[in-house]
Amino acid sequence: MQKRSDLSDVQKGMIIGFRAKGGSISETVNFVNCSRAAVVKVYRAWQYGTIQNQRHGTCGAPRAIDGRGERRLRRCVRANRRATAEQLTAQMNQGATKSVSSTTVQRTLLRMGLRSRHLVNAPTLTAVHRQDNARCHTARSVCAWFEEHQDEFTVLPLASKLTGFKPNRESVGPPRSGCSRHGSSTA
């Protein structure tokens, strides 16, 4: 049987996976062929986060806002939910030895999951767009399109065995020549 120090990363991963899946200590010992103490120590070390991938996060420059800075930024956001990135940057740089830019603060907020909750979706406000987005104008253009493509649609007869449905003359009558809204014709 192998001790904890003799285990490879693959065997440690097998121990962690087997225990996380719900296997008992004895089953894990038989599966990996190592000591009980090794199974307990490896799994406990993984639970409390002391086993990590050695190559994780070692590439690139160190972050301008580290874990402690993120906690400070989170406190600033909680204090003022409506603060802009520039205001948060000023608060972060107020007593800091190393200043950060507003772009860094914005990126950190997004990485932390702190973003606006509502989507800002406003139509453009030029005269042409205002006219196109007007309710009567869009209704008029839809009716005009249906009148142009009227021959492409087929009106099917109603099924005679529908229960509880009493067709009136307007629903089964011939199509009207103009599109009307509130009784006024727009054609």
Automatic annotation (TrEMBL):
Compartment list: Nucleus
Region (Disordered): 164-187
GO cellular component, one term: nucleus
Superkingdom: Eukaryota
Domain Transposase Tc1-like: 71-132
An individual GO BP term: DNA transposition
Family annotation (InterPro entries): Homeodomain-like_sf, Transposase_Tc1-like
Protein name per its UniProtKB record: Transposase Tc1-like domain-containing protein
Predominant location: nucleus
GO MF annotation, one: DNA binding
